Amino acid sequence: MSSEQIIQTPYYSAHLYxxxxxxxxxxxxxxxxxxxxxxxxxxPEHDDxxxxxxxxxxxxxxxxxxxxxxxxxxxxxxxxxxxxRQGDHWRGNLQSTFLSELPINYELYVHKSQxxxxxxxxxxxxxxxxxxxxxxxxxxxxxxxxxxxxxxxKPDGKPDxxxxxxxxxxxxxxxxxxxxxxxxxxxxxxxxxxxxKVKVGKQATLASAEDHIAPHRAARDAALKLLFAxxxxxxxxxxxxxxxxxxxxxxxxxxxxxEDTDSFIARQSVRVRNAKDCWATLREGFVQPNAEVPPxxxxxGSSRARAVEEQPQMDNGEVEGQATRAPVGEHAWPVLEWVxxxxxxxxxLVEKSGQPLHSPLLVSQIPQPRxxxxxxxxIEAPLDVIFYCLKETDLxxxxxxxxxxxxxxxxxxxxxxxxPLFLNxxxxxxxxxxxxxxxxxxxxxxxxxxxxxMRVLLCRNYLTDFGAGPGQSSTRPKPQARGQPRPAPTRRxxxxxxxxxxxxxxxxxxxxxxxxxxxxxxxPSEIVTLIESPCSTDINSSAQTLRxxxxxxLSYTLFxxxxxxxxxxxxxxxxxxxxxxxxAAFETASRLVRKTRSKTSAAMDDRAIEGMKQLxxxxxxx
Length: 622
Hints:
By secondary structure, this protein is α+β, with helices and mostly antiparallel strands. Helix content is 45%, strand content 7%. It is built from 23 helices and eight strands. The radius of gyration is 27 Å and the shape is globular.
């Protein structure tokens, strides 16, 4: 089909076809796609309730729908503006514009769930290294605009992108309205009566007095002391009733706090109620006891300015126009420690009731998927907290990150979370650490069966996808994340709970058989194959791969000892340990690292290699 190129940029080109049809073609480098983010395990899985889950590559009709929607948005927001800048004008039919192909290493999947005879079908776009999944063209639109704009980054290295995942300061409803995909303005006022005007004037009068009634240091210390005292005499569920969560809704006032209160502290408490989850309350700047200079507007436009004037601070603690806030504010560390103590107590109470060791209260802090029968999976917010803690130099703060990571790992032993997505989310963060940090984090985790199982699965996934050398293919298909619907961005209000509630949480209790996860059996032959696979010729990669192989052997041995006797597997594993195959594989990998050590200062030194050999000897005699 003949065409006329109407524009060419470093990131895309647009072509005019017969009938005013315009096709937009992305350049090869216009992508943030990661091939390891695609779904590889597309086999159907069935649970004990007769439901099944399966991922299949989207058909052509579905792909065409996405490409047409994205093409129209891209033409309206980018192509027409670029044409004006080069002195040309738009000559195509906007509604006949299409995107030729998705960015490289992106793939559309249809997730089939619930009943196999009449499955629910949801479409998800995987591939971005920054975002786990997009669930609609509207969600991906601004990310695509960011890609064709050169993929600029913020000073902290994060994408300077306006999509709901890269910039959570706006809801998807606001974004869809801005994209003209939603007709109702989410900020449109219901009414403007005299009562609301009086209320605004009253708040303005009180604003100047807020500095004088903010709590002093002694009062904050006393409040923290009281919180920890409550922990000794109350159930975790009763305490967490004061915090926001995703489970359940209630349209009434929470804990008796009314929004028209005159108390500055009470109004800050309303902000706690209106937050999406407890992680938002920890974020830097969530509560500001002193008056500050009004923030600069982040985006131009009168409608946006009005929105900022009406609500200068967002529900997650972000302030419009300011840089991304730290996941844990400087004064929020004691609160984070208290939250962890509540969750750990919740775990112990649940374990005493006969259920697997996990915290239902922690589950309530993970967004719910759209499908009520689907497991939860979006743990980006707690992971932000964890890895922010791990970057701290203070050992106590680092330990808070380890404790929260251990709480998340314990959830993996239940079916309330999606294990493949859990592994992807934790693994992508964990293996971004340098080798010493990685080993330190894994060593700090408790040696429980759930933790050892998670360590084995994480190491296996890493070696399957990243550990092989050039030209080496994966030894088996990696069980990738079975994506679930992205939780709705609209916050859920907190249901009222009785102070006398003796349950550990508001999450409905389930019997052990319904939530205990049965992990897939990992045979010793699979472990040996992974360890014997050649390392990458890149010295940094081979050094980390060697450490991970050793971690796999250690974790698997300890897991086998804790998991109970299995004559067949134990005999096979003991044979592997005694015939010298593991020692030979590690010796070969060590020689490669030693040989290329001089190429970079990141290579392991002789002391590290010798220490690894000693650990290997300990594995052999287990």
